[in-house]
Prior knowledge:
CATH superfamily of chain A: P-loop containing nucleotide triphosphate hydrolases
CATH topology of chain B: ABC transporter involved in vitamin B12 uptake, BtuC
CATH topology of chain A: Rossmann fold
Oligomer: heterodimer
Number of domains of chain A: 1
Radius of gyration of chain B: 19 Å
Strand order of the largest sheet of chain B: 1-2
Order of helices and strands of chain A: HEEEHEEHEHHHHEHEHEEH
Number of helices of chain A: 10
Strand content of chain A: 25-35%
Shape of chain B: globular
Amino acid sequence: MTDGSATPREARGPALLKVRGLEAWYGESQALYGVDLDVYPGETVTLLGRNGVGKTTTLRSLMGILRKRRGEIDFDQRSILRLAPHRVAHAGMGFVPEERGIFASLTVEENLLLPPKVANSGMEMSLEEIYTLFPNLLERRHSPGTKLSGGEQQMLAIARILRTGVSMILLDEPTEGLAPVIVNRIGEMLAALKAHGLSVLLVEQNFRFAARNADHFYVMDHGVMIDSFAVAELPEKREALNTALGV
Amino acid sequence: MTMILGMPLPVLTGQLLIGLINGSFYALLSLGLAVIFGLLRVVNFAHGAFYMLGAFTAWMLGQYLGIGFWGALLLAPLIVGLVGAVVERTMLRRLYDLDHLYGLLFTFGLALLLEGLFQHVYGASGKPFSAPDAMKGVVRTDFVTVPIYRGWVVIASLVLCLGTWALIEKTKIGAYLRAATEDATLVQAFGVNVPLLLTLTYAFGCALAGIAGVLAAPVFQVSPTMGSNLIIIIFAVVVVGGMGSILGAIATGYLLGIVEGLTKVFYPEAANIAIFIIMAVVLMLRPAGLFGKEY
C-alpha cells in the first residue's frame, strides 16, 4: 500500500520506541508478562488482540500512568521507564486515550489548547491549520467539548495532540462506536499524520481499519506479544489471525 | 421612621449588613474549600485553622515587626499559602491513594494541632486588631449606618470571589484546573505537571482562607478558636451550595449570611440554627446541593 511497507523496518533508522521485557501490575495482579515492541520513525504500528489481553495496559505503561512496571522502555534512545507521565509527554510522546478524554467543563477550543507544547518535532500544527482541517471544530469552538458528536470528539482528541509537537502518538481504539463514514474520516486523519512523519502506535479492534492504515502489526495475548509481521505478510496471516482474534 | 414588616428600616438594613459581612467570610472560605475539594478530593478540615492562622499571622506581623494592616493583608496570605504548600508537599500528598477519609482525618488533626499550639502560646482570649485608621469612620444615611471598614470588607470579598471565579473559568491555568478536576491522570499525560498543580491549588485555597482571616481580624477578635467556630457553618454552606461547585460556594456563602442576618431580626431564637435547617431541607430536596451536578 505504501512504500514504507516494502522496505525493511530497520531502513527507517534506529527504533523511536523500543520496549523489551515489559512487565506491569495493577496492584498485586500482573497484567503484562514481558512485552517486546518496536516502533520505527514514521511508522504506524497496530496492536491487535482480544479484549483484556493487555493492549490498553501496554499504552498506559508506556505513558507512565501505570507506575508498577519492570523492563526496558527506550524512547528516542533514552530510557523513560522512571519518568512521571508529564515528563514522558515532554519527551515527545502524545496520548489519545480510550473514550477520547474530552473534558466536559472545557469548551472545544479550551480542549484543543489544553495540552501544552511539549516538543519541537517540526510536525506541530497551528490552531489555524487544525481549524482548516476540521471546520466543524471551528464552528463549535465555544460549545462544551462533550456536546460534540462521537466522531467530532475523536477528531478533537487527535487534533489537540497535533498541536503539541510530539513525535509519536499512542492512539487507543479511535474507531470504537463510530459510524463507518466517520471511521473513514479517522483513517484519512491517520494518513495525514503519517504524511507528516509522525509515528503512531495504534490499539485497534477494527481489523479492517487497522489493515488499511498500519505498516506493521503485533498480536497480543495474555500480556505478551505472540506474533509480529509487516503489512505485506497480512494475506498469509489471515487464517492464524482469525483464530487469535476470535473473529 | 420607615417600617418594613413591623421592623424599623435601620434595624433591618443593619442586620442585612451584618449578614452580608458574615456572608463575605462564608463565601471566601467555602470557595477555597470547594476549589480544594474539586481537584484534590480532600475535605479540608484544616480550613478554619488556616483562617485563624491568617488572622494570627497578621497580628504577629504587627506585634513583632510593626507591619501595618495593608502589609499584613499582603504578607499573611502568602505565609499561610506557603504553610499550605509545605503541608501538601510533605504530608497530604501521601494520602491521595488512600480512602478520602484519611485526608479528612489528617486535616482534622492538623486543625486541632494548630489551634492547640496557638492556645498554648497565646492563651484562649481574643487579641484586638484594629482596622487601618483611614477606615475607622462610619457612613450614615437615613436607611443604614455602614462602618467604612465593614463595607470595604464586603467589596474586597466580592472582588476576591469574582477574581477567583475568573481565574478558574477564563484562564489557561484555570483550564488545567478544571480539566484535572475531571481527569487528573490524563492532564498529566498531556505534559502538565499535575503534582505541582495540586500543591499550588491547596496553597491557593489556604491563602484564600488566610486573606479571610486578615480581613476578619478587625471585625472579630484574633483568637485560636475563631476558625473552629466558623468551620462547621462553612461546611454547611458547601453542602448547600453543592460540593465542588465554585459559583455555588460563592453565591451560597452570601445567601446564607444574609438569611442568618435576617433571621436575627425576625426570629432571633433560630438565628444560630437557620443555616442548618436550610441544609437539612436542601439535602432532602436536592441532595447534590443548590448548584451541584446530579450524578
